[in-house]
Here is the input.
Amino acid sequence: MTKLMEDRLEELETKVTFQEDLLLRLDDMLVVHQKDISSLTKQLQLVTEQLQQVIGMLPEEPEPPPPHY
Here is the structure.
């Protein structure tokens, strides 16, 4: 193998190594973000349920205006 081919092969191996590392880090971040999304989804469901309970406790008719109006 010529020096030029060896250099090119080494460069390609280096690039592949960096790409593999990048993919592993991206996968790790994807897992973290998926956990965050899951947690936020649960919190949103809880807030939605609480809001529906509060809306359910509101009177059907609006309050009459105070006497001084």
Notes: Residues 50 and 56 are 10 Å apart (CA to CA). The chain has a mean pLDDT of 94.
